[in-house]
Amino acid sequence: MLKNLLNLMFPKTCKGCDALLLYNEVIICAECRHKLPLTQHHLIKNNSTFKKFYGIIPTEFCSAMLYFHKDGIVQNLIHNLKYKNCQEIGTLLGDWYSHEIKHVEELKDVTDIIPVPLHKKRFKERGYNQITTFCQSLAENLQVKFNEELLHRNSYSKTQTKKNKTERNNISNAIFEISHCYTEEKKHFLLVDDVITSGATLEACAKTLLKIPNSKISIITIAYSDS
Ligand SMILES: [Zn+2]
């Protein structure tokens, strides 16, 4: 009753399409949920995300949850997550995706979930890392450690999504660093980002993490973009 009243006074809108939410809908409306463009990458070993790193870095498993289309639901969700402080979108998608990937054999020995870090300056501007809640949900559901201390970004760079392959090669691995040395324990890092476009940022992160002896890498993103 109170919830209905509050909803009347402060109507909530869908983070995917801006339509008014019904009282039993949370964050995104039923229609957007139904229309979410799931990639099903986790069912295809040689999927488009995996192919981005093929021959560049060794990976155990790569997948993106959703297809990113310009002006589509996923773009709105990412925008709200990234710039409007709607961090509960990350939780919702993380819970959802955990159920999809929990039986993936290659992920069974993951030890740490590593968010692609923001530079301190950007973190301060935004107040949060947009991928944190998605990572936390994965960590909780898959029962592995959420490790946000290990990897750091040490230079402030503009978005790398528009860079071509030559420029991509120039992105120094040195923009990421490991905060401390690891023991000889075998590590399987699950590296997580919001959108994969060229893959250059994830590649730089992965190369840094792979410097740790006995480590291997898997990669998951919320969305996959071709452009
Ligand atoms: Zn909607």
UniProtKB/TrEMBL annotation:
Coiled-coil segments: none
Top-rank taxon: Bacteria
Signal sequence extent: none
Gene3D superfamilies referenced in this protein's UniProt entry, alphabetically: 3.40.50.2020
Entry's family note: Belongs to the ComF/GntX family.
Protein's name in the database: ComF family protein
Organism name: Flavobacterium cucumis
